[in-house]
Amino acid sequence: MRAKRMPRAVRERQMLDAAVRTFGQRGYRAASMDDIAELAGVSKPLVYLYLNSKEDLFTAVIRREARALTEAIRAGVGPAGLPADRQLWNGLRAFFTHTARHPDGWSVLHLQARTHGEPFAAEIAALREEIVAFVTQLIAAAAREAHRDPDLPEREVAGLAEALVGAAESLADWAGATEGVTARQAAATLMNFAWAGLGDLMADRPWTPPEEEAGPAPAEPAAQTG
Amino acid sequence: MRAKRMPRAVRERQMLDAAVRTFGQRGYRAASMDDIAELAGVSKPLVYLYLNSKEDLFTAVIRREARALTEAIRAGVGPAGLPADRQLWNGLRAFFTHTARHPDGWSVLHLQARTHGEPFAAEIAALREEIVAFVTQLIAAAAREAHRDPDLPEREVAGLAEALVGAAESLADWAGATEGVTARQAAATLMNFAWAGLGDLMADRPWTPPEEEAGPAPAEPAAQTG
Amino acid sequence: MRAKRMPRAVRERQMLDAAVRTFGQRGYRAASMDDIAELAGVSKPLVYLYLNSKEDLFTAVIRREARALTEAIRAGVGPAGLPADRQLWNGLRAFFTHTARHPDGWSVLHLQARTHGEPFAAEIAALREEIVAFVTQLIAAAAREAHRDPDLPEREVAGLAEALVGAAESLADWAGATEGVTARQAAATLMNFAWAGLGDLMADRPWTPPEEEAGPAPAEPAAQTG
Amino acid sequence: MRAKRMPRAVRERQMLDAAVRTFGQRGYRAASMDDIAELAGVSKPLVYLYLNSKEDLFTAVIRREARALTEAIRAGVGPAGLPADRQLWNGLRAFFTHTARHPDGWSVLHLQARTHGEPFAAEIAALREEIVAFVTQLIAAAAREAHRDPDLPEREVAGLAEALVGAAESLADWAGATEGVTARQAAATLMNFAWAGLGDLMADRPWTPPEEEAGPAPAEPAAQTG
DNA sequence: GATGAATGAGTATTCATTCAT
DNA sequence: GATGAATGAATACTCATTCAT
After folding, report:
1. Mean pLDDT score of chain B, rounded to an integer?
2. Residues of A numbered 109-168 whose beta carbons fall under 8 angstroms of chain B's beta carbons: which are they?
3. How big is the A-B interface in CB pairs under 8 Å?
4. For residue C31, which nucleotide's C1' is closest to its Cα?
5. Phi, psi (degrees; rounded to nearest 5) at A210
6. CA distance D53 to D129
7. Are A108 and A36 in contact, with CB atoms under 8 Å apart?
8. pLDDT confidence of C219, banded at 50, 70, 90?
């Protein structure tokens, strides 16, 4: 039973929701347009009318999910004036919270989109670059705060940022697969690792999370749609 | 055009070589058995005769590449008596060297195999578990060496190992994509990040690589075939 | 060349018609879905869209032909009140008429479906059971009419019914292959054989067909389509 | 482990044995030359060397099994001097005994060979003609014995013979599928049906089997090979 | 004589995509 | 605006058959 007339924006959202789920769970190639149309509750030609082709649909999905993720992080990080470690701590919690709440979207971004060549890889590269740039700038800020001298070489900082982002991605998967690991714990583990380093941890000198703000974790409207 | 007669073992190796390349570059679904057979220089039925099915072929590829990777790392790490940071340093260099030399194999292991569900995910899970277990044990050894007291909680150690492995994976991709980053540099960046931590780095207290052995990086017979 | 748009039911009938012909003449394995689609004047994907798989298609064909045959017989037999030999005589004429008019359907039911294992054999077993049950009940009725005492053992009756049905099947093939043998003649031969027995025939005591009704043989709308 | 050197005749017999089994159980199309070669314990090229092609192999199988069947019947029938009903009775027992002992051969002759078009159908037609001719001549003999006058028309006799043979085939299948039905019982059922007719049976005037000869049922060397 | 190595030619099935209404 | 009807192009997999040794 097909749903009755609806404004285009709503229909399109339903299609994208269905697509995220299908792509996230089955993968790009294994997901068929039939599946997606059925899950969205519309006919296949309508999907084509609105989203043009499978490639365009997948690209639209990637963009929407990428945007949602970066906005979640941006919202979590807080004002630019905070100290670097505090900003990172906030951002990581937002990141782990978001990936936990949108596993299909995370799967699309982290697994599916990277595995199927151009033009999707480029979308992901852009997303990653944005995040890496943010982290890079945080590291630079931390160096400034510490009056470090001389500066770390640029490429070294880039590598550190890559490492940090990779560690976060890995922990997001791990938290998603391991019962009972909260976003907060994942973030704490990563802060320790990144900020204090294993060396300090061995010496029992961990990084200490700042006292918590009053409210709950950065609000997100709701869990995964669909 | 009939392919020259060859002993089965040789042909099988050629097929696996072709498969690594094709799967690594195109992905599991997009790689067709026709492509692989052609690249291997044989007819499709022969591929089926020897490797049974696309699924079996992909599994065989995963296993071969996984084995090659773990053996390269194991060989690189050196004797068990070395200090933990030295073992890690050695292992990382071997890892980055291997992934740089076998980009298709690395793509299969890191991207393709994880994206296409069971039974491939299980193979990769096993591989990753092996590596994570090794890193976990290194961290435990480091703690012992540092006479750390009290012990880090088990789950915390697991998370740290996940983070470290994820960082390494990420840096392998980065090194593969960035002109002029050597395995040694990638390993050094990660050692700094992991061992000293960003905090120490800010304070200009980096981890110091041990003096280098005489010869070049751990020998590997040859680069990717095909 | 795009086939003209048609309602699904019509197209489905065309496909089944083409399938009966192809399966009946070439056999299940030798008939390719390409052949059937071409004969039906549609593309292969449409056949799959409507009939799902070769197995399902063949099953649908068997069911349709089985139903047509049993209904032809049921219609031919006439009211339950008739004497047993009269019912048998009517039923046999209907049977031979139908098999003569639908040789491909008869080939599917009698030859192809039995030769290719489950699940087709089960369909045919059900059909045959239905017919054998009908004959069995006729024999029982004849015994009642003759006030036979004691009853024939159940297994003996089953064997007789099998024999009669087998004889009918064989005569259907024979009539189909032999120029100039009418359904009526085949039915008469079988009635003689079955009802009088060779012994009586030798003694010149044949079974006598009842006077014929006015009209022609039981009407059937049309011959095989295609 | 391949068997060592063997005389050609023996090897060929093994291949035919394997082929009967495979064709009988799987059907002509579904049986692969690989299966047959493996079951025969020889390499595929050897099968081709001896039997030439799948078609030739199947034809050879049909001929061998047809010959075995007709010889078993001929041996069972006994001397030409016996009364017609006695000859039929003997022949039927031999037939049901043989089909029960060689189910795969019976399946090849009765099901598989008829279903796959020329040239196999011709082989079966020849076999059937031979049997029908024998039965026809028996019926003629019975008529002579009964001094029947006038003669039955030739086509009528042909039809009766077809019916009788079809009934026998059907009972062979039935006996093969029904637990506890012996060759003797099947033959008795058919003699009753054919000789006395249902009409006489209803009147409790069955055909009476002649007293049994001393020895056991017509000897056959052994059950199905392979 | 016997076999391991190899393939040409199919076969069922699927999917993204487009019309005609 | 929305959809039922339709297909071109691929894809995994199989099999009878043949050489080279």
Report:
1. 85
2. 111-112, 114-117, 139, 142-143, 145-146, 148-149, 152, 155-156, 158-160, 162-168
3. 170
4. E11
5. -65, 160
6. 27
7. no
8. very low
Short-list B165, B145, B169, B146, CA closest to B157 = B165
C17-44: average pLDDT? 94
From-to residues of CATH 1.10.357.10 in chain C: 55-202
Under 8 Å between Cβ of D167 and D88: no
Interface size, chain C vs chain D, as Cβ–Cβ contacts under 8 Å: 171
pLDDT of residue B126: 94
| Residue C207 predicted with pLDDT over 90 | no
Residues 6+ positions from B133 with CB-CB distance below 8 Å: none
Q: How many CA atoms lie less than 13 Å away from C210 in the CB half-sphere?
A: 12
d(CA B212, CA B215): 8
Report pLDDT for D2: 44
| Choice among A89-98, A195-204, B124-133, B180-189 with the minimum mean pLDDT | A195-204
Q: What is the DSSP letter of A149?
A: S
Q: Is B125 exposed, middle or buried (0-12, 13-18, 19+ CB in 10 A)?
A: middle
D207: pLDDT strictly greater than 70:
no
* Mutation for testing the C interface, residue in D198, D201, D204 having most C CBs under 10 Å: D198
pLDDT score for C188: 86
- Report domain B62-202's class: mainly alpha
A39 contact B CB<8A: no
User: Which chain B residues 44-83 have CB under 7 A to strand F?
Assistant: 44-45, 48, 53-55
When the pLDDT of each residue in chain D is averaged and rounded to a whole number, the result is 82
Alpha helices, H only, D3-102: 8-26, 33-40, 44-51, 54-77, 84-101
* Residues with Cβ within 8 Å of residue D87, at least 6 apart in sequence: D77, D78, D80, D138, D141
CATH of D1-52, one of 2.60.120.600, 3.30.230.10, 2.60.120.10, 1.10.10.60: 1.10.10.60
Q: Are C176 and D159 in contact (CB under 8 A)?
A: no
CB-CB contact of D103 with D223 (8 Å):
no
* Closest-approach nucleotide to residue C3, Cα vs C1': F6
pLDDT at A88 over 80: yes
Do the Cβ atoms of B23 and B111 come closer than 8 Å? no
Class level of CATH domain B1-51: mainly alpha
d(CA A183, CA A218): 11
pLDDT tens per residue, range C108-144: 999 999 999 889 999 999 999 999 999 888 888 877 7
Q: Of the candidates B193, B186, B187, which has an alpha carbon nearest to the alpha carbon of residue B163?
A: B193
Report how far residue D58's alpha carbon sits from residue D61's, in angstroms, rounded to the nearest whole number: 5
Residue span(s) of chain B under CATH 1.10.357.10 come to: 62-202
Burial class (CB in 10 A: 0-12, 13-18, 19+), D149: exposed
| Confidence band for B58, pLDDT divided at 50, 70 and 90 | very high
Residue B25's pLDDT is: 94
Contact assignment for C115 to D189 by CB distance below 8 Å? no
Cis amide bond preceding B119, omega within 30: yes
CATH 1.10.357.10 boundaries in chain A: 61-202
- What one-character-per-residue DSSP string does C102-117 give? -HHHHHIIIIIHHHS-
Domain with CATH 1.10.10.60 in chain D: 1-52
- Asked whether the bond before A209 is cis by omega within 30 degrees of 0, the reply is no
Task: Quickly tell me which residue has 């380093």 as its tokens.
Answer: A197
Give me chain C's average pLDDT, please: 84
* CATH 3.90.1150.10 is the classification of domain D61-202: no
Q: Which fold has domain C55-202?
A: Tetracycline Repressor; domain 2 (1.10.357)
